[in-house]
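Q: Please design a sequence for this.
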């Protein structure tokens, strides 16, 4: 299995927020996700990491089969098909990109994010990532590269592409790892371009002993995207379970997203029994499809 940690070293948005009855301010992006990719008012799909035992082309097909309409790719996944073991990303070449785009069109999916990926501090390396995201028509790049913010903020403005800081769990033996804490992320993005914010990984918050709904409230107005997870317990070793069957309060999370007028993508990132997870992933997406906010919210 690929070790994820090694991979880390737009008017439509306003219309959708209005439809959800929100008075919250959404990130001012032109590259909003088109409303046609919404499911019950949410842009729900998969982080391709869910399918990391498969190729990127298979990840597209499986996301569609599970009921998703958007997909977030991760760097280095084998493209598959005629491109074999070529890793998907900025260096995969125009032919591979065209093949992936064709698969997206065939299955009615929209590529919305790329990550989690390290953003270089050198401008040329960072620009290569933004060019790739632009070519793919993506809305955002997901990273944990806080130290590169001065490099990529001008590119956020130039390309009109968001950057979202993702959180892995708290690392007790590494006090320098701070992105697990929503208050730290809030301090990082304060005063920055509104298109720089958070990728809210709810499962990793639970593993850190935090309550996702409270974290989302802390980051109100600064959440670009979300890796939505329900876990079987509050513990560092907890594993994914279908939405609504665990401890993460998925309904409460969706309530808060709807209240805030959140218009970013929600990625199911299911990391349990990954070779046979299709029924569980489909159940997660089905939960969002059938979700109904309580009256008065």
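A: Design:
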């Amino acid at each position: 299995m690929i070790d994820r940690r090694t991979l880390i070293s737009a008017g439509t948005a306003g219309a959708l927020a209005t439809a959800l009855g929100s008075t919250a301010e959404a990130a001012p992006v032109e590259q909003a996700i088109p409303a046609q990719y919404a499911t019950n008012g949410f842009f729900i799909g998969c982080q391709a990491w869910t399918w990391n035992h498969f190729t990127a082309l298979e990840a597209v097909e499986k996301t569609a089969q599970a009921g998703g309409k958007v997909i977030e790719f991760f760097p280095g996944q084998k493209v598959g098909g005629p491109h074999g073991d070529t890793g998907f990303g900025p260096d995969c070449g125009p032919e591979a990109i065209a093949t992936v785009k064709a698969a997206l069109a065939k299955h009615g999916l929209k590529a919305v994010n790329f990550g989690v990926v390290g953003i270089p501090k050198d401008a040329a390396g960072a620009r290569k990532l933004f060019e790739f995201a632009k070519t793919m028509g993506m809305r955002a790049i997901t990273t944990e590269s806080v130290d590169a913010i001065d490099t990529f903020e001008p590119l956020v403005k130039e390309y009109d592409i968001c950057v979202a800081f993702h959180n892995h769990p708290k690392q007790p033996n590494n006090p320098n790892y701070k992105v697990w804490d929503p208050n730290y992320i809030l301090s990082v993005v304060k005063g920055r371009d509104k298109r720089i914010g958070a990728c809210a990984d709810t499962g990793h918050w639970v593993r850190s002993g935090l309550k996702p709904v409270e974290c989302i409230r802390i980051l109100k107005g600064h959440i670009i995207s979300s890796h939505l997870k329900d876990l079987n317990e509050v513990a560092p070793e907890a594993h994914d379970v279908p939405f609504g069957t665990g401890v993460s309060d998925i309904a409460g999370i969706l309530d808060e997203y709807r209240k805030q007028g959140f218009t970013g993508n929600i990625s199911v990132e299911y990391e349990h029994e990954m070779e046979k997870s299709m029924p569980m992933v489909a159940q997660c997406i089905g939960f969002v499809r059938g979700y109904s906010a309580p009256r008065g919210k």
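Q: Thanks. Anything notable?
A: The first helix runs from residue 11 to 19. The longest strand covers residues 196-201.
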